[in-house]
Design goal:
141 residues, mainly beta, Ubiquitin-like (UB roll), four-stranded mixed sheet, two-stranded antiparallel sheet, 8 strands, 11% helix, globular
């Protein structure tokens, strides 16, 4: 059970320009969060938070998410040692997306062993063939 209280979203101007945190959760009680590296600025991952994950992140200074596959709170690094120490926590203009800036401990953010979950690139400015999906190129972004 969470104890965090969020601001009311009834006043659009207050949501967009005010100083009260009023996150817009989806119908599952989740909000997307993008996480970037405090040292490099690179995107590390995109995940989801619920009210409890937001509360735990604020209280501990370590990133907590909601795992949609496991349907449970996920303290990043609790089992892997790859903790994320929060340096900045932001919301966008209409408060329907969040951004964590973190110090990634252990060096590997992605569960398959890469520093970022965005380790594959998709070529652009190339013809798209209807019978073949675009190819992915792997790097250690």
């Amino acid at each position: 059970m969470t104890k965090i209280q969020f601001a009311d979203r009834a006043d659009r101007k207050a949501v967009e320009t005010g100083n009260a945190f009023a996150p817009k959760f989806d119908d599952r009680g989740l909000i997307p969060v993008v996480t970037t590296c405090a040292n490099t600025g690179k995107v590390l991952m995109q995940a989801w938070m619920n009210a409890e994950a937001i509360e735990r992140t604020i209280e501990t200074g370590e990133a907590h998410y909601f795992s949609r596959s496991r349907q449970e709170l996920w303290h990043k690094g609790a089992t892997s040692g790859e903790y994320q120490l929060v340096k900045d926590f932001r919301t966008d203009c209409d408060q329907d997306a969040l951004w964590l800036v973190v110090e990634q401990k252990g060096g590997k953010c992605c569960h398959v062993g890469h520093p970022s979950c965005f380790y594959r690139s998709i070529d652009v400015n190339v013809p798209v063939a209807g019978d073949t999906p675009p190819a992915l190129k792997t790097d250690d972004a």
